[in-house]
Amino acid sequence: MSKARKKLPLHIQIIIGMIIGIIYAFISSYFGWNSFTRNWIDPFGTIFLRLLKFMALPLVLFSIISGVSSLSDVSKLGRMGAKTIGFYLVTTIFAISLGLFLVNVIKPGSFMDDEQRAKNRMQYELWVEATPGVELKDNLNFLEDPKYDYLKADLKDDFEFKDDSIKDKIMSANQKKEESPLVFLVNMIPDNIGAAISSNQNMLQVIFFAIFFGITLLFIPEDKAKPIKAFFDGMNEIFLKMVDILMRYAPYFVFALLAGVISKMADTPAEVFQIFKSLGTYTIVVTIGLLLMIFVVYPTLVSSIVRKVKYRTFLRNISPAQLMAFSTSSSAATLPVTIDCLEENMKVSKNVAGFVLPIGATVNMDGTSMYQAIAVIFLAQLHMVDLSFTQQLIIVLTATLASIGSAAVPSAGLIMLIIVLQSVGLNPAWIAIIFPVDRILDMIRTTVNVTGDASVTTIIAYSENEIDLDSINDPNTNE
Ligand code: ASP
Fold this sequence. Notes:
Blueprint: H1 2-7, H2 10-30, H3 34-68, H4 75-106, H5 114-130, H6 164-177, H7 183-188, H8 193-199, H9 203-219, H10 222-248, H11 250-265, H12 269-278, H13 280-305, H14 311-328, H15 331-345, H16 350-363, H17 366-382, H18 389-405, H19 412-423, H20 431-434, H21 438-463
The structure holds aspartic acid.
């Protein structure tokens, strides 16, 4: 028995943990054990998240310093930086375009009955009238059309959502919008490196410091640089090992994490089904788009550019990171595992993995941007608002920026969706409509975000000759 268990590869063990967690959550809500689950099981999920999070920052710091200081040619860094940003942008724009294509073809918003949609439309028109600076985006006017007079009695003229959490989200998104466009550049530079490291929130500041430190290390005399470099190499090894040790217990932690998340979603299984029924088509369209990215776009892209890496090899080698992303809904918390998978399984050099992945975790969110594009059009369809081609182009632009600006934590994409809605003159409070299914979609889009980072990293490593193609873990030989 124990032998058989040992033989199960880690990702299968994690999947089993996930499935048991989900099944348990349903049983627990059926028998009314939810408060037991929240008090006694959920905390272990939180412990797991904390462990992952505390490893992320030191790992980024040490892996960048140790990677950059082992570069033989500093100009390589500039080239790699340009490639990283270029590739990340291309994959994001592709993801948004695929999302727009799917939502325009399947039209999930038109599945609701027409009377309800007409009411939504009139509600939207009332909101436009009441909101300064917003205009109707098309030439329709349902409020003035006698055909819809009979619906007027049901219209409410309050547009504020009662839910405080939604109001707070809108306020914090508006604050972001008012900032200068260069604020991201300013924010990248730490004014106090101790504070940047200890706050655990300023990944880009830590990346900036680590690159600067690593480069400077190359310019000081060899005898002084050597012990410092050895120190950072050693620290990097220690943190990678910590991730390895933690991952051995991941299946148990993932069980606790999922049991907690699902039991918090709703109190009874019937409620869960109800939520998914009303937003079913939308959920399906987002899921199709995201799965296409995970199982078709990325592996095909990687295996067609890096011929020696087969479809299955790639997916299998990064699967622990994908499963972590799914369970934690946070690319930042997953980062230690992503770095470990790329270095240990894909044999990408630590220069590249340590540099490209942390930047990706912060700025490259293909899943988030695709989800935002689909959500905006779905909400417009639900309110019978037809967005023109130009408006859809604006969505490409704002969703790209919004995904770059989204923090790599759960639900960040939903908050930034507010900005995308406002950019095309739609009501930001509509996020409340899709809020109930956000957590599950967050899990899948985070998996896409992490897979995107891993794909771009593999391709850049290949183009820079920084991947050891002959020793990549091969699932066919390492069963
Ligand atoms: N949870 C996502 C991530 O960490 C961001 C989002 O789309 O909410 O990658």
